[in-house]
Every structure is written in C-alpha cells, then in structure tokens.
Design goal:
This protein has helices at residues 8-23, 26-54, 60-91, 94-112, 118-146, 152-176, 179-196, 204-210, 226-237, 240-250, 253-259, 268-293, 296-316, 322-335, 339-349, 355-368, 370-384, 386-407. With 422 residues, the chain is mainly α. The protein has two domains: 22-198, Growth Hormone, Chain: A, CATH 1.20.1250.20; 215-416, MFS general substrate transporter like domains (Growth Hormone, Chain: A, Up-down Bundle). Helix 15 packs antiparallel against helix 16 (355-368). The protein is globular, with a radius of gyration of 22 Å.
Length: 422
C-alpha cells in the first residue's frame, strides 16, 4: 500500500462520521422532535378521551357521541390545515410552517388541559388538528432538501422513529399522570422546541426558489396537469393500506377477536400499543432497506406484500389464543412501517415550488381515506360477514396500492433542486 493511500477502514470511518454529522444537524433534529410532539398529541387524545370526558360529568352515551364529535373535528382541522400549511410551506418557507404548526398545537394542548366544557374541548381539538397537520410535511420537506440524496432515507427513518416514539411517550405519560397534566406536558415539549428554533436555518433550495419568478404553493397546478395529478393521486393511494390496517384491523380488533372465537377478549389499547411499538422497528427497517436497495419502490413493495400476507393470516388462519392474535397485530404494525418513507417519496416526486404542498397534504388525505374505507368495511360486513367482508376491502385496498406503486417513478437518486412548470 502506498504511503499516501488511505486505508479502507479509515475511509469507512470517515463516511460513518459524515453520515452521523448530517443526521444530527439541528434542522433534522428539530423536524424529528417536532414529529415526536405531533404524534404525542395525536395519540394522547385517543388514549385519554374517555377519562377526560368522564371528568366533565358526561354519561356513557354522551361520551361515545361527544367523543366521535371531537375526533371528527380534529380530523376536519387536519384536512383544512394540511392544505393551508402546505401552501404556506411553499410560499413562506419550510421553517415558517414547521414552527407555526408546533406553536399552534402546543398552545392548543395547554388549552385542552384547561377545558371545563365539551364546547371548549371541541374548539381546541379542531385547532390542535389544524396545527398537527403542518409539522410532518414541512419537516420531511426540510429534511429532504437539506440532506444529500444518498442520506434522505436515513433522515426519513429518524423522523419516523421519533414520531412513533411520541405515541409511546403519550401512553407512558397518560399512565403516570392525570389527563390534564398529560396535555400540559405535551404543550411544554412543543414550546421547548420553539427555543431550539433560534439556530435553525432554512433550506438552501427554498432560499434559491424565492429568487425565481415561479408560482409557489399553487394547488391548481396539481389539477391542471394530467401527469402531475395522477402522480399526486398515486402518492395518496400507496399509503391507503397503512390506514386500512390502523383504521380497521387494529381499531376494531376486539370485534375481530370475537368473530375469530379467541379464548379471551381482545384489549384494543394493547393491540394499538403493540402495533405502534412494532411500527418503530418497521420505520427503521423500511428506511434502511430503501438505502440498501437504493430504491424507494422496492422497499415499499416488500412492505406492501408482507402486510397483505399478514392480513390474510389475521383474517383466515384459525389460531385461537389472544396471545397469537397480539403477535399478528404487532407484525401488522411492523409491515405498516413505511409511513414516513412514502411521505418522503411524495416530497421527492415534485419540484421545490410544490414540494411542501404535496408532502403536507398527502398524509392528511391518506388519513382521510379511513372514512371511505370504514364505510366500505361496514357495507361489506353486512353483506359477507366481518371476516370475508374485510377480506374484500383488503383486496381492493392492496391491489390499488400495488397498481399505484407500479406507475410511480423511482425517486431514490432524484435531484431535489428543480421546479414544476406552470
């Protein structure tokens, strides 16, 4: 070996340090921590919904009715917020949205801890949903533009993992603290992130974009071009199987357990926690697999197919113990762990003048697909029974997802510094 030739080991170590240095840059960390607080709030409400409404002296019937109202208002806030924040992200900047959304849902969290009536609770859940809608898309957009092409998958993995950790943190906090204190803790965590904002810098790609004479954040550009529209639609459809699993199989796990004749009743809370705990590993695995395969599409294809196989096992394999059922729920959570990877793909699919709009609206529209999916589920359940009715919905959902993935372009090596033509 020549004297001035570096050893392979030293080159490898240098590459590892460079990758780590990229991933611990402040904008990446703030985006990841922001998503953690985002998911904390989203799942905290699901966990403490019943005890919080009971403390407001509601009857069991009112808890169900008003609980659905609060959930629907939160979803409405997320849908509206997804559009507003997405447009702002392309017009005003990724950081403006990232911290505007964090500030709004942090203050709403604190307000939720102070409510004394369902009316105030409803208004604040709408505001919280509006704020929650902007963080992930803005964070993923910022991360995808700051990191080198070869490291974007790792950045998405970090953001996703911290997000699901937020859901688990919500469970732990709600176990040890009163529901009002749990809301205060969520709001405090968000406000702490605002302090970190001081040293965070904007995406260089966006700063260059501001100097160009191009339309930014124009939603109609997604509709007036056939190729862009179908690309956007495909980006939504590939995420549908995730919310089929979460919104139907895991949410209604007690009903499925009863239909399958399990030896003990299924605890929905336990099924949810197992699924989302496993999703942490799934997010890491999908991010790393996309890096190893050097392909977003191949990684998503594997998780889609694995998820569908597990759906068949969930519905058709005649196991009788609740323990076996919980294991399948956890594996379904793992196979749904391409959530942030598919949002990264959405950000990579479009130019910098539409990127935040797309990355922010797509995940919220995917969440909204739970509405038609659950409606179809209820229809098919009445026609074919809960097991085979769900199987029909599953086949439709996964076939659509695979077709959409087939027509989607590969974005692994795609340069982020380009714009969409008007």
């Amino acid at each position: 070996m020549m004297l001035n030739e570096p050893s392979p080991i030293s080159e490898s170590s240098a590459a590892s340090r460079t990758t780590l240095q990229h991933l611990v840059r402040l904008p990446v960390l703030v985006a990841a921590l922001g998503y953690m607080v985002d998911m904390y709030d989203l799942f905290l409400f699901s966990i403490i919904r019943v005890p919080s409404l009971k403390s407001l002296n509601l009857s069991d019937e009112s808890i169900l009715k008003d609980g659905l109202l609060l959930l629907n208002l939160q979803m409405a806030g997320m849908l509206i917020g997804g559009i507003v924040w997405g447009i702002m992200g392309d017009r005003k900047g990724r950081l403006s949205v990232l911290f505007g959304s964090i500030l709004i849902y942090s203050l709403a969290n604190i307000g939720n801890g102070l409510v004394t009536s369902v009316g105030a609770y409803a208004v604040l859940r709408f505001i919280a949903g509006f704020g929650l809608a902007g963080e992930l898309g803005a964070g993923i957009t910022l991360v995808s533009e700051i990191l080198p092409n070869r490291l974007r998958g790792y950045g998405a993995t970090l953001v996703a993992t911290m997000g699901v950790m937020g859901a688990l943190l919500a469970y732990l906090v709600s176990y040890f603290f009163d529901w009002r204190i749990s809301f205060f803790i969520g709001g405090g965590l968000g406000l702490l992130l605002m302090i970190m904002r001081i040293r965070v810098f904007e995406s260089g790609i966006f700063l260059k974009l501001k100097e160009k004479n191009v339309k930014r954040g124009n939603v109609f550009m997604l509709l007036n071009n056939k190729k862009r529209f179908f690309k956007y639609l495909n980006g939504i459809i590939i995420g549908m199987p995730i919310w089929f699993v979460v919104g139907i199989l895991i949410t209604f796990s007690p009903e499925f357990g009863k239909a399958l004749g399990l030896d003990q009743p299924v605890d929905a809370g336990k099924a949810v926690m197992l699924a989302f705990a496993a999703q942490v590993a799934g997010n890491v695995a999908s991010g790393f697999s996309s890096q190893y395969l050097k392909s977003r599409k191949k990684a998503i294809l594997f998780f889609l197919l694995f998820s569908f196989v597990l759906v068949l096992v969930y519905l058709l394999v005649p196991f009788k113990t609740t323990t076996s059922f919980y294991i399948i729920c956890a594996l379904l959570g793992f196979s749904s762990g391409y959530w942030t990877l598919f949002i990264t793909v959405a950000a990579e699919l479009f130019g910098s003048n539409l990127r935040a709009t797309v990355a922010t609206t797509i995940p919220n529209f995917v969440r909204a697909t739970v509405i038609p999916l659950t409606a179809l589920f209820l229809l098919m359940k009445d026609v074919s029974g809960i097991i085979y009715g769900t199987l029909i919905v599953a086949v439709i959902t996964y076939v659509l997802g695979l077709v959409a993935l087939f027509f989607l372009e590969e974005t692994f090596t795609k340069d982020m510094n380009y714009t969409e033509e008007n």
